[in-house]
Amino acid sequence: MIIGKYLENPALYSPDELERLDKHIEKYFGKATTVVHEFFSEDIHVDVSIIPPHEEHNYYTLVTTGMGAFSMKIPSEYQEDGLPSRIELMMCLPPEWNPESKESQENWPVELLRYLARFPIIESTWLGYGHSIQNGTPYADNTLLAGCVLLGVQDAPEGAAVCKLSDGSWVGFYQVIPLTENELEYKIQHSTDEMLEYMEDVDHVVYFQRPDTKFE
């Protein structure tokens, strides 16, 4: 995990903003029973809330808190589209996932979310729907997943994708879907939507051993 000083001044949520985010996450995704805290950082402070399986959703939901304290610079040609400059990320994992494990085979989703949270700062860029990030190699030796794409929030009530803050600004949420190298390559050569046409049977819940997608 990369932690370093990429901003002249740290970007942090105010107490009121944090309270609104926590309430939004609990309302739309569920109550977190565990928060993986970040104890040292010099740019943004990224915690990962872990929401266990519950009656509505039989899977874990991981949500970042802290990425959206930094406002990304959206290119002028996209600004009229109303894309959020402040975002948080989420990922869903199966009920058998072990949130207590520190082994890389289990813990890579948490580290991936933290890395992605800093990606716009590290690379002086922005992230939005359909953006993909390659890892170069699989995230762990028990999976073919080696990169990811950002999609809209999956399997959540209307209103879940946007958290309005007291000053009138808002924070958007995106779903992180890990991909294989083959899927990433197809997405890059074609488009996100064309890739998704072949992945209708791939669940938004991330199964580490899921098979690669076959493209005709």
Give the arrangement of secondary structure elements:
Blueprint: H1 15-28, E1 34-36, E2 47-51, E3 60-65, H2 76-79, E4 87-93, H3 104-122, E5 132-134, E6 145-151, E7 162-164, E8 170-180, H4 181-189, H5 192-197
Parallel strand pairs: 4-8
Antiparallel strand pairs: 1-2, 2-3, 3-4, 5-6, 6-8, 7-8
Explain this structure.
With 216 residues, this protein is α+β, with helices and mostly antiparallel strands. It is 24% helix and 21% strand. The chain has helices at residues 15-28, 76-79, 104-122, 181-189, 192-197; strands at 34-36, 47-51, 60-65, 87-93, 132-134, 145-151, 162-164, 170-180. The N and C termini lie far apart (36 Å).
Question: Which oligomeric state applies?
Answer: single chain
Shape: globular
Structural class category: alpha+beta
Distance between the termini: 36 Å
Give the helix level as a range of percent: 10-25%
- Summed up, the helix count is 5
Largest sheet: 8 strands, mixed
Order of helices and strands: HEEEHEHEEEEHH
Low-confidence runs (pLDDT<50, min 5 residues)? none
Query: Which strand-content bin applies to the residues?
Result: 15-25%
Global mean pLDDT: 93
Report the count of strand segments.
8
**What would you report as the Rg, rounded to the nearest angstrom?**
17 Å
Organism: Oscillibacter valericigenes
InterPro entries: SUFU-like_domain, SUFU_N
Protein name: Suppressor of fused domain protein
Domain Suppressor of fused-like: 43-202
Summarize the structure in short.
The chain has 216 residues and is an alpha+beta fold. 24% of the residues lie in helices and 21% in strands.
